[in-house]
Amino acid sequence: MSSRPIISLRIQKHIKDALARTGYDTVQDVLSASPTSLARELNITVPGLNITVPEVDDLIQQIQNPHTQNSHVPLTQSAAVIMKSARTFSTHWEPLDELLEGGLVQGHILELSGPPGSPKENIAIDIVSSFLDAGEEVLFVDCQNMTSLETIRRRLSGLSVSFLALHYIRISTAAEVMVFLHSLDLILDSKPKAALLVLNSFSFPFSTVPSPHLKSRMLEQIKQILIKVTAVRNLTVLVTCQMANKMLKDDGSAGSFDEGGKGMMVPQLGSSYLPSGRSHRVILSFDGPTSGAMFLLPSSPQMAKTERVRHVPYVLQ
Description:
This protein is of the alpha/beta class. It has 2 domains: 6-82, no CATH class; 88-315, Rossmann fold. The chain has helices spanning 13-22, 27-31, 35-45, 53-64, 79-82, 94-99, 120-133, 149-155, 174-182, 184-190, 212-231, and strands spanning 88-89, 104-105, 109-113, 137-142, 166-170, 194-200, 236-241, 243-248, 262-267, 279-288, 291-296, 310-315. The chain is globular.
């Protein structure tokens, strides 16, 4: 039942509509979120809804009840079919489009993580070209001075895109990131055609945040902002991140060598800043000088034990 579309359930229409607006398309999407975070996301996306955590608990029980299934909607109907009218942008990397089942859906978030030298910045620029080619405006925020405006222009040279629609911003500290994101509504008001926000090397400014508690609070604030701009404004967000070496036990929790932990490369920021319903996390690895693999991570930590990690090979282009 986990892949059953929300539209097929016999639940209140305004709740069904709120789930769809927040990016929850299948039962699996809903079950991957905690009741607290789901209530918060729904209330941010739909002002005036005021759904409580106990009400979300009841909603989850309804969703898990077979009697809420609508027999008039086929079991095989996927979220992709339901959202066929949603606008999708190609990444210009065929393997990545395959992982994303056609491309990057407008209003969704894509996080690309990989070691230094992986093509995450090139992929980001190629996605920028898709939006520019469609006549949309792009906000490109570079957080580590890794991708200059000239680098973007050089990769896109020869394409008939308007660079006047590309707004390049450079910031380098976590404080500057938070100021920018808290001002994002005003920025988008002044640029109503902006359809893509790129946060390049987004993990870098947070590497110097002195307190884990402070960093956690920042990431939670970022999550609430991303929920709002993607669901309410239909803004697409692309994030590139570095990898970090962390000690993890077999169940994915933090551990030490004494506890049987193993050193693993994982996305530096984790997943706590990403909304559950509309985020995709892809890790890039190397198999050789010009080739590697792309791994689509489970949609949430809760689904890691049941959701298969899909991967496809890629060749540098």
